[in-house]
Amino acid sequence: MKDFFKNIAKKLVVAILTLEARIALARHKPQIIAVTGSVGKTATKDAIYAVVSGSFETRKSQKSMNSEIGLPLTILGLENAWSSLSGWWRNIWRGAMVAFVASGNQFPKWLVLEVGADHPRDIEKISHWLHPNIVVLTRMADVPVHIEYFKNTEEVLREKMFLARALKPKGTLIVNADDSYFMKTVRDLDAKKVFYGTSSLAEIKIIETGILYDNDFPTRPRGQYGILNVKNRTERIELNGVIGKHLMYSIATACAVASVLNVTNNLSDIFEQFDMPRGRMRLLKGKSGSIIIDDTYNSSPIACTEALKTLANLSVSGKKIAVLGDMKELGIHAEKAHRDIGKLAGEIVHTLITVGKLAKHIASGAREAGMSPDHILSFETSEQTIKAIADILHTGDVILVKGSQSMRMEKIVEVLLKDQNEAKNLLVRQEEEWQKR
């Protein structure tokens, strides 16, 4: 009964805040950039914000607030009140002030919004009232995250495309030219399109990308670079403190937005200061002179594959280690998806550590790939893992840590940090509400 009333209260709060957000949009008429896809949404949203906010007053979705409650909160400029009833009442009051009282100069000219779909009709319902000026499509996947709640990949794609079809007249659709799912689906859409990627069709083209190493320590990675052609202008972009060639797609998307808006700022300077979201391929200093690749925000088959490929491409003096947790919400695809990740990991890493019941299939896949069982460890939880691997790292080692949000893999990263006191400044899910869980 308690849960029943809790769900009723939640639906009521969502309905009120959504109404306030719709009124605010109607009154203030901001320009809207909306981002969707299976992977890369948050990094792409933050990269776009870095470009747009340099020229216009802009607000973005905080962290990954992309749901039916996250979008109204972002539009109204409100914080998540978590489980605080009084906090939600304050949000409703403040939302009313924004919707009915605030003047135009108190509202941002641009909104950069991340739009996700955990269940069928999530984006369909949003598309009835959110009509962006620019829609960005990042990347689909053969086995998308949350597919457990959909019939198949095509149904996930259909849900994502509701946002593209909600585009305002004369709006612009920015599409990953390397993604066959989106390219096939946008073909018949009547909208201005800008393509990005490595394909010959891309107007914003990724020409080259590679790993940056420390000048004094040639086996110590420090970031990722990319060379992009932006409407016949060559830009060299360097990202410090993160790694992975797939991150350059987020940068290319932001460059595409810059070209649409005729933003002439020096893009290389903008991204030199760009701070990639926490838990997304962040390079952190580990114990005993090691390096941690912190990719603990979430996990899916395509994202985990990209992370492992990045680890494979590294030149390091020590061991390559991967700590991989369950990938949730994959439904009937779960066992095969985990086993396939294990086969890939078995070809790349010296030591594999799995966390969770599903991740045991990763261990099985690695053994099938010929990896020695002596180099594979499996645990049920992140807490069990912490006790067993606290002293695993040595000078020159690189350790990738990745898993779904509910696996709390950031707890493992915390004990591996060179300075654990820095955890609150470096890791995901450090808010008090998360720490209680």
Radius of gyration in whole Å, from Cα? 22 Å
CATH level-four homologous superfamily name of the largest domain: Mur-like, catalytic domain
Q: Residue share in helices?
A: 25-40%
Main sheet characteristics: 9 strands, mixed
CATH topology description of the largest domain: UDP-N-acetylmuramoyl-L-alanine:D-glutamate ligase
Give the N-to-C terminal Cα separation: 23 Å
Proportion of beta-strand residues: 15-25%
Tally of individual helices = 16
Structural class: alpha/beta
How many strand units? Answer: 15
Spatial strand sequence of the major β-sheet: 2-3-1-4-5-6-7-8-9
Low-confidence stretches: none
| Integer tally of domains | 2
Q: Return the average pLDDT rounded to an integer.
A: 94
CATH class of the largest domain: Alpha Beta
Q: Label the overall shape.
A: globular
Supply the CATH architecture of the largest domain.
Answer: 3-Layer(aba) Sandwich
